[in-house]
């Protein structure tokens, strides 16, 4: 599966902790991330991560493009709802694309853990089946 990992500045450390905790589940999958988030994940975990631009420089849009091409299967986007984001329209567009293309999306740590545990148990295999039908 192709998994995107995105975190606002105040959530980057939490994303690193999440990827450390679920490293064995994430390892067999193709991981993608926005700039700094991807760098921090790679440094902390040793996982291979394809890095896009940072969110404000278009990274959210790059991931959105992959969603619209059916090349992304799961998004973990640890958002900071208490801090205004200069690229909020891009964030909103990314969330909308997840809804349009039925991509599982976690925007907080609780939902992220549920999705990662579901991934481990094979509950998201329908994404692979769907891709094979196209």
TrEMBL record:
EC numbers on record: 4.2.3.3
Top-level class of the enzyme under EC nomenclature: lyase
Stored Pfam families: MGS
UniProtKB keywords: Lyase
Chain ranges passing through the membrane: none
Annotated GO CC locations: cytosol
Database matches in InterPro entries: Methylgl_synth, Methylglyoxal_synth_AS, MGS-like_dom, MGS-like_dom_sf
Domain MGS-like: 1-134
Active site: 60 (proton donor/acceptor)
Keyword tRNA-binding carried by entry: no
Alphabetical GO biological process terms: methylglyoxal biosynthetic process
GO MF entry, a single one: methylglyoxal synthase activity
Protein's UniProt keywords contain Lyase: yes
Annotated residues for binding of substrate: 8, 12, 34-37, 54-55, 87
Swiss-Prot/TrEMBL catalytic activity: dihydroxyacetone phosphate = methylglyoxal + phosphate
Family according to the record: Belongs to the methylglyoxal synthase family.
PANTHER family linked: METHYLGLYOXAL SYNTHASE (PTHR30492:SF0)
Described purpose of this protein according to its UniProt entry: Catalyzes the formation of methylglyoxal from dihydroxyacetone phosphate.
Listed name of the protein: Methylglyoxal synthase
Organism annotation: Listeria booriae
Lineage of the organism: Bacteria, Bacillati, Bacillota, Bacilli, Bacillales
């Amino acid at each position: 599966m192709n998994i995107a990992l995105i975190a606002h500045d105040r959530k980057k450390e939490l994303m690193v902790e999440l990827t450390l905790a679920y490293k064995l589940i994430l390892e067999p999958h193709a991981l993608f991330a926005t700039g700094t988030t991807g760098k921090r994940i790679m440094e902390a975990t040793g996982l291979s991560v394809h890095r896009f631009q940072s969110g404000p420089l278009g990274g959210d849009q790059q991931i959105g493009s992959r969603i619209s091409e059916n090349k992304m299967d799961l998004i973990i986007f640890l958002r900071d709802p208490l801090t205004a984001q200069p690229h909020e329209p891009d964030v909103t567009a990314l969330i909308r694309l997840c809804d349009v293309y039925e991509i599982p999306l976690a925007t907080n740590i609780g939902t992220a853990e549920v999705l990662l545990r579901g991934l481990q148990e094979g509950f998201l295999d329908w994404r692979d089946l769907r891709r094979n039908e196209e």
